[in-house]
Design goal:
The complex is a heterodimer of chains A (360) and B (298). In chain A, the strands form 2 sheets. Chain A has a 4-stranded antiparallel beta sheet, with no helix packed on it. In chain A, strands 4-5-6 form a 3-stranded antiparallel beta sheet, with helices on one face. Chain A contains 12 helices and 7 strands. Chain A is of the alpha+beta class and 360 residues long. The two termini of chain A are 35 Å apart. Chain B is α/β, with parallel strands linked by helices and 298 residues long. The N and C termini of chain B lie far apart (54 Å). In chain B, the strands form 3 sheets. A 6-stranded mixed beta sheet of chain B has the order 5-6-7-3-8-9, with helices on both faces. Chain B has a 4-stranded antiparallel beta sheet with strand order 11-12-10-13. Classes of the chains: A alpha+beta (360), B alpha/beta (298). Chains A and B meet through helix 4 and helix 5 of A and helix 2, strand 5, helix 3 and helix 5 of B.
Chain lengths: 360, 298
């Protein structure tokens, strides 16, 4: 059945894949050659398809754990067939090792094939978005889905062994798997290698945005953390929330800029929002879509930005960004895979120990 | 005579309840042994302990002179047919035989194939589609084809209809006749055992109430019917197992090695079923007496 599903999927991907390549070649590539490219439109027409395939890679490891791992032993215990299996001339350790080994092999082959197909299928889009360290891409390409699936399989079989019932074991597997994935993605992965640091000027218009045209950092980098520091090296805040959105910067009607905790700059230009007759109490409201009467004009925002930037420059405000460069994609795939495979081996080892020592 | 199964003070506990406690029993080799007892007596627990599916919580147990462990040598010597004869519903008969062949070094393919053919089972049939009787036969075939020295069967016929039951026991008898294999068969139904067993162990509440070759047991028990009489006045060489009285008449089941000479008695032979029931009844009566009185305030 699994082979059938994979075959159907393979055919579907084979049919749709070339059209993505076609879109990439005819629309995206010429577009990327230009300065201001909004060429993703060619892909976004296929949004649903993209999301479906992407989602498939996200959930497959969990499905492997729930539907192959959890019933592996639990169903034998539920149906009493373990009494048949364990009274042949083979020890339970060998019996379980064989089951785990065959299951792992099938998992590697199916999920590996699936990952291979979808990684190929996504390659034009990935080349376009050029940020493979983003979790929604990194988690669903190349090696890591296979490692996730192996871990989920080992977790499921251990849960089934301990709980002795399939359904609860499936639930435990799902939550355990999501739990470890979350912890690794959130806390461990950003630190597989020491993040690089980059310093970019404080950007009042887009606080916290340090990448792309408005920041100094390449958009392919994966930001780990950022902080805003003053010229004297004092850290104002973590994660770049100094800025209008946190109320740390305000501009009075007279044009006086206040950088809270840093200082003020008396301007010789009035707040342009007042000058244009558009009433807004602060930059915060005008930029974050807070309560306002009229939308400010672009030129007014630009002027405001200049006033704040000048002040920020006076105090030497900078954003320090810790990031992982795209060049670390393969090492990170390796580390993450090794981590999950090691966890899978530990769980499998515990299962073997348990079935020998404790099951009775 | 060496023992195929020897338990000493054997106990198995689940949480705070003992499924088997202080069980001491010795089952000799070369017999078809019936392990009888009411539900909950610990028969199933004893057999599962004997095949290593359970670990004892207390006491010791030797099977064929070895400790029943999850060790391949020991596993190969004991064949086991579990209660309700579980099989893999999604696997075919042939798959089961294949599994047996791969997991048992002494697997006898000829025996297995011949038995399946004799039973008229279709090798391609999924075991989930087999009748209860056919499933039991498949489980027995697997246990026999591994060529064990000892065959343990845990209530193999309990869920079968009378015809399937008789067929199963016939096949079992045939196997015993062909191979030199000792058999222990548990059941709470005497009628099944009467047909096949030549040795009987009666287990009530973990305790062996009676054990011995069937013919000796039958020869040493008598039913006596005569004028009403107090059991305490019976001669010393006659142990009363069971007694019942009407106004004028007493009926006793006695255990005695000697002939009954008192002419006031009508002496009858006892059937195996009556004999076992008498011992079970006796054990139940003792259990009732020794049970602590709960909630009784004096």
């Amino acid at each position: 059945m699994v082979a059938g599903v994979l075959a159907v999927l393979g055919i579907a991907l084979a049919i749709t894949g070339p059209s993505l390549v076609h879109v990439y070649d005819t629309v995206v590539k010429p577009c990327m050659a230009k300065v201001n490219c909004n060429g993703a439109g060619g892909f976004s027409q296929r949004d649903h398809l993209l999301q479906a395939v992407s989602l498939l890679l996200l959930i497959t490891p969990a499905l492997v754990g729930m539907f192959w791992g959890a019933p592996l032993v639990a169903r034998e215990l539920e149906n009493n067939t373990f009494r048949l299996a364990w009274t042949q001339s083979v020890s339970r350790v060998r019996w379980l090792a064989a089951k785990l080994g065959i299951g792992a092999l099938v998992t590697i082959m199916t999920v590996g094939l699936l990952s291979l197909m979808t990684t190929w299928w996504f390659s034009p889009l990935d080349a376009f978005s050029n940020n493979a360290l983003t979790p929604s891409i990194f988690d669903r390409r190349d090696l890591v889905p296979v490692a996730y699936a192996l871990f989920a399989f080992a977790l499921g079989s251990l849960a089934g062994l301990l709980i002795r019932r399939t359904l609860p074991a499936m639930v435990v597997t799902l939550f355990g798997f999501i739990g470890l994935r979350y912890v690794v993605e959130d806390s461990l992965r950003p630190h597989y290698l020491t993040p690089l640091k980059a310093s970019t000027p404080f950007n009042p218009l887009n606080p916290g945005v340090t990448q792309g045209s408005s920041g100094g950092l390449q958009s392919s980098a994966q930001v780990v953390s950022q902080e805003t520091v003053t010229g004297t090296g004092r850290v104002l805040s973590q994660s770049g929330n100094v800025g209008p959105s946190s109320g740390e910067v305000s501009v009075a009607n007279s044009g006086t800029v206040t950088l809270r905790g840093v200082g003020t700059c008396h301007g010789n230009v009035n707040n342009p929002l007042v000058a244009t007759g558009r009433v807004s109490q602060s930059l915060q409201q005008s930029l974050t879509g807070g309560p306002q009467v009229h939308a400010p004009s672009n030129s007014a925002i630009e002027k405001l930005n200049q006033i704040v930037s000048t002040c920020a420059h006076k105090y030497g405000l900078r954003d320090i960004v810790s990031y992982q460069p795209l060049s670390r994609y393969w090492p990170f795939q390796m580390y993450e895979s090794a981590l999950f495979i090691a966890a899978a081996l530990v769980l499998a080892g515990f299962s073997l120990w348990w079935v020998r020592r404790r099951m009775a | 005579m060496s023992a195929v199964l020897e338990a000493h003070g054997l106990g198995k506990r689940y949480g705070r309840t003992w499924a088997l406690s202080e069980c001491t029993v010795s089952i000799p080799s070369g017999h078809v042994v019936g392990l009888v007892g009411p539900n909950g007596a610990g028969k199933s627990t004893l057999l599962n302990l004997a095949v290593g599916l359970l670990k004892p919580s207390a006491g010791g147990l030797e099977v064929l002179g070895g400790r029943p462990t999850d060790e391949e040598g020991q596993l190969g010597r004991v064949g086991f047919v579990a209660q309700d004869t579980p099989t893999y519903t999604a696997l075919s008969v042939a798959d089961h035989l294949q599994m047996g062949a791969r997991t048992n070094p002494n697997w006898d393919r000829q025996v297995a194939d011949a038995r399946i053919a004799q039973l008229g089972l279709d090798p391609a049939q999924k075991s989930g589609k087999l009748s209860g009787g056919q499933r039991a036969q498949l489980a027995l075939t697997m246990a026999v084809a591994k060529r064990p020295e000892l065959l343990l069967l845990d209530e193999p016929v309990a869920s079968l209809d009378p015809l399937a039951r008789r067929e199963f026991l016939q096949v079992l008898m045939q196997t015993v006749a062909e191979d030199e294999v000792s058999v222990v068969l548990s059941s709470h139904l005497m009628a099944d055992l009467e047909r096949v067993c030549d040795y009987l162990v009666v287990l009530v509440a973990s305790r062996v109430q009676l054990a011995g070759p069937v013919d000796e047991l039958l020869a040493s028990h008598r039913r006596l019917i005569g004028p009403r009489r107090d059991p305490a006045t019976m001669p010393g060489n006659q142990t009363v197992i069971e007694s019942s009285h009407t106004d004028r008449q007493s009926t006793f089941m006695v255990q005695t090695e000697d002939p009954v000479l008192d002419p006031s008695w009508t002496v009858e032979d006892v059937g195996l079923e009556d004999l076992v029931l008498a011992y079970m009844g006796q054990a139940a009566a003792i259990a009732r007496q020794s049970r602590p009185m709960i909630g009784l305030v004096k």
